């Protein structure tokens, strides 16, 4: 999953970014509320972690602008203000969940996964496409009940596809969701990885289809 983090405290931003990347999330970090809208226009993020005390445009105003524009990205708010009125205000402005500082990384990761699940109408902590399952807790794939072990790049691409199963993803979107910006990979690498995944998925009841002009889509056979 690709996450946008909006946090102006350098130490906390660096810690969250590093920790989530170690858990195989892909994180882009901005430290000013004015950068949030631009980032969301440029990338398709699965969730937004939003600090309320941002400079430029604070978290409340940022959230109100997003919802006024009918932007439906799941938003997890970070706040040090542990009061009922603050919680109610934030939820009424359009936040999906909030986390009080300080917090444990495990809780942050669990809440992010739950947000994305709910946004896709998924009841259980897993993503599925036909017989192919991705357990969001163990981060393991299985197909027809058997474990499916994958090299890192194949795992990253298949995860991007199953999170958006049934929806086409372009090469750029797959690169954005599956790899860190520092990898500096060309779009052609997506073709190579998809070719390998197609071979692995032969006869399993799930396939990767090319939709001309739109990209790749994961779907049951």
TrEMBL record:
Sorted alphabetically, the Gene Ontology BP terms of this entry are: regulation of DNA-templated transcription
Q: Where is it found, in Gene Ontology cellular component terms?
A: cytosol; protein-DNA complex
| UniProt keyword annotations, A-Z | DNA-binding, Phosphoprotein, Transcription, Transcription regulation
Which segments constitute the OmpR/PhoB-type domain? 124-220
Q: Which GO terms describe its molecular function?
A: phosphorelay response regulator activity; transcription cis-regulatory region binding
The record ties this protein, via SUPFAM superfamilies, to: C-terminal effector domain of the bipartite response regulators (SSF46894), CheY-like (SSF52172)
Read off the InterPro entries from this record: CheY-like_superfamily, OmpR/PhoB-type_DNA-bd, Sig_transdc_resp-reg_C-effctor, Sig_transdc_resp-reg_receiver, WalR-like, WH-like_DNA-bd_sf
DNA binding happens at which residues?
124-220
Response regulatory domain span: 2-116
Post-translational modification 4-aspartylphosphate, affected residues:
51
Q: Pfam families attached here?
A: Response_reg, Trans_reg_C
Gene3D superfamilies attached to this UniProt entry? 3.40.50.2300, Winged helix-like DNA-binding domain superfamily/Winged helix DNA-binding domain (1.10.10.10)
Name recorded for this polypeptide: Two-component system response regulator TctD
